[in-house]
Design a protein that fits this description.
about 100 residues, mainly alpha, Serine Threonine Protein Phosphatase 5, Tetratricopeptide repeat, about 0% strand
Length: about 100
């Protein structure tokens, strides 16, 4: 079932390559099936090419901390917190800060 969703998302990205949500959804699908390499590619692409897509920061930090890439996770959290502050998104900023505390 998830393979079908991955193919659907990839097909949609062919016609909408700049859609940040589609990249985000694809990364989450790869995470769900433990395709770490593909998830890394999608998350890095998303954060580099769509740096204003705030939802990506929490998931990316969580993913990279799970891979024991703590410096990368912390860097992502810091950027996400700064973006949430800039966007005046207090809820997301709080979630990112809480994740940072959990990760230590």
């Amino acid at each position: 079932m998830q393979r079908n969703r991955i193919e659907i998302l990839r097909n949609m990205l062919q016609t909408q390559p700049d859609d940040s949500f589609l990249h985000y959804a694809l990364a989450l699908e790869f995470i769900a099936i433990n395709e770490g390499e593909m998830a890394t590619i999608e998350l890095d692409c998303l954060l580099n090419n769509h740096p204003d897509y705030l939802p990506a920061y929490y998931q990316a930090a969580l993913f990279f901390s799970g891979k024991n890439e703590m410096l990368k996770a912390q860097e992502i959290l810091e950027k996400g917190i700064a973006l949430a502050h800039k966007l005046d998104d207090k809820k997301t900023m709080g979630e990112l800060m809480e994740l940072g505390e959990e990760l230590g």
